[in-house]
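Example 3.2
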Amino acid sequence: MIKYKLILIFFPLLLFVFSNSNHKKSLSLPADDGLSFNLKSRQEWELNRLADPVTGKLPVNIAALELEYASALPNDEQVLGYRAAKWIQRGPFNIGGRTRAFAMDVADTNILLAGGVSAGMWRSTDGGKSWQKVTIPDQLHNVSCLVQDKRKGKTNIWYYGTGEAYGNSAYASGAYYYGNGIYKSTDNGITWTQLASTNSPNLTDFDPWDLVWNIATDISNDSQDVVYAATLRRLFRSTDGGQTWTKLLGGDYGSYFTDVAVTSSGVVYATMSKDGNQAGIWRSPDGINFTNILPADTFPAEYNRIVIGIDPNNENVVYFLAHTPGYGKKSIRSQDEEDWNSLWKYRYLSGDGSGTGGKWENLSAHIPSDGGKSFDNFNAQGGYDLVVSVLPGDSNVVFISGTNIYRSTDAFRSDSLIRQIGGYAVHTKRPKWEVYKNHHPDQHVLFFNPSNPKILFNGNDGGVFKTFNCLKDTVNWVSLNNGYLTTQMYTIGIEEDGVSDVIIAGLQDNGNLFSNSTNPESDWVIPYNGDGSFSGIATGREYYIMSTQLGKIRKLKLDDKGNVIDFTRIDPIGGKNYLFINPLLLDPSNNKLYLAEGLKLWRNDSLASLPWLNNYDSISTGWVRFSDTVKYPNRSISALAITRQKPANRLYVGTSKSLLYKVENAHQGDPVLERITSLSNAGNISCIAVDPRDGNKVLVVFSNYKVYSLFYSKDGGSSWEKVAGNLEEKDDGSGNGPSLRWASIMPLKNGKTMYFVAASTGLYATDSLMGIATRWVNIGHNMIGNVVVDMVKTRSEDGLVVVATHGNGIFTTHISSPEDLLGTPEDKLFMQENVKIFPSLANEKITLAIREAKGNYLFSVYDLNGKRICSKQLNTGTEKNFFYEYETASLKPGYYLVFLESETQRHTLSFIKR
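Structure, written as tokens:
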């Protein structure tokens, strides 16, 4: 079985390859602190909701272990095949997600490859106008770096690394999501295979290949396939294209941050952060013998991540951009954290390049920063976003990037010739900050079109972009994100008492999005920017409630396209101690708004009458803070739920560290919190799901690993039963089951009930809670797959189910019966072992083989956007073993599904067109 070492994203069917359309614009309201200044708060929030409460850390390689466990769970494809409910990938089509890997084919500049940090590898054959996902279901979807072998006759070879070592949505002290080595393609990025030599040998041991910082190839060596890999704590070299590796630098006590770059003549530069036993900046003329060239007498004493930029016009010149705490140039992040960075220029002169053999120039004084909180300042966020590049053809043009992109036309020898050309808008200020037009903050990749270096490509936390002229005074960017479905959702909101198509989504780094269309190609708009958080839609869509990181809330009036007509900031004066993604709840019965604030609760009784002030300051109007609070310190309210009837207006309140309360008649007066002591468990309560028909029926979700995850009460909390069932490996929760994030109870019009759970390994559902024997089924297995699902919302009126993934956007479907998702008892009788397609990697044709064929079959092929390519009736006649050849030469390269149906059999198969 293939091993996994991160929370992977996989959805093999409903991906889209669409033509480019114009990037539509609408008024976008900013958050107060920007997109880039809350990394620490995000990390703390993620760690609190996921860590093992006993150790305070994520269990080692838990993502690999949970996915191995989840692979054995039942799924809807096994039972229903192609009859499984049809999911629509709702987008956002026009907005991309966090991208650390992006490159161009030097042999065909129309071919681009880009990798999302939790969304897999994507490929474009038309210069970024459309994209196709090329990562397949049983591969890792965490892409951290990417390189092509640029030697003549070898450009079909690519490598990508896995594991994001810094900045992952679950990164914090003791919290990593690991990758598992390096993947290689020999057909120009169409298919990928893990290099067995980089496969970590043990799921429970920490391994250097778990986190790959960078990969480089040596184009000067025609006799060997030389590849370098900068991993956690080590630098490796391979001479056989990754089949075997030799350690060059580092060890068990090696550096956390590493990097590697190779000149066209084979000279290797590597960096190792100060925490390792071989810290420094290293140079090797042959990739074997290394010399530490770091100028110890002048270089900062503390240095973490250092990235490398070789001057392609003079490869004896190399730039090093470093995060150097306490040294270099300072800026201040929004929470008063200092960010220190340094820029150094090195020129090789002679010998081994150390001492007098190299010349160093400290350019840190010209890093653009006034030492304050300005968005114009260079800010690397502790090394999260750090890039340095030199323009081919002109050594004086040097680019450095953190949250923003800066261009110097005198190689940063002065301040006067530096221009900010991307990221945040130039001179933007709080609270009404803006991003650079058609661009996004937090930069990770820069590269140039080899035939026209003025064309600059960029990967950042908003996806992929390019400019046709990076030398203009005002650089104009073009988004390449159409169909690059890589966004990371935290939350979703729907109109709970209507049947509209409106969805609000809260995204990591990409604000609150709005859509009112089921067309997968439609553009989403951003009414309110920031890190999107909880939201609500008032009755009749009279107004919308949207929030961003750390408790900032807006009431907005939108038109049917999501454009902002009016707004007002409404979070209460005096509020503080908010979580990064902070719970709030709009009661659909009366439009009262409930807000968590640390140990306290607020309620706003006057939302409808709040005037449209177009303001950026907190208010007091309508707010009541409950006198009663959670009386146990070192906790925060983490979940809220309101009952609709039997009884109405009961507010359930969950906290970090496992406390549960209920508040009767929460809609009026100054009610008290009553602790529910019958539920004893450890961990963070991430969701409370109430049956809309009966407020005494409630599910409580605990999101941490190594605790029991799901409890159900029929009597308002007087008694509880464990209902996680087969989602737990062990009945006490201590095994390798997934992290559960959200739940929903969905009454159906036929009187039956569906129960949904959003988990780190996908979406699960059941129609019967049977205690620890509850059987949960993975839903959307061939469409959503084992993607991280952070939230699921349901609506009984029209059977709507909305799924928010953390890497591949949003999916929706409509159901009327549990059988739509779980099948009938008869469905379980259909088997698949008598059917096969070969070859699995096709060029001209595939062959379908049916053993013990009986009667007629319907043969259908679907492409990756869910569109049927062909449908054909097959008459097997009297042949016991039947063969059918299907021509694939005209198909675009990529992943395809084949459905085969007879009166007694249903089969789902797949193949890859090269």
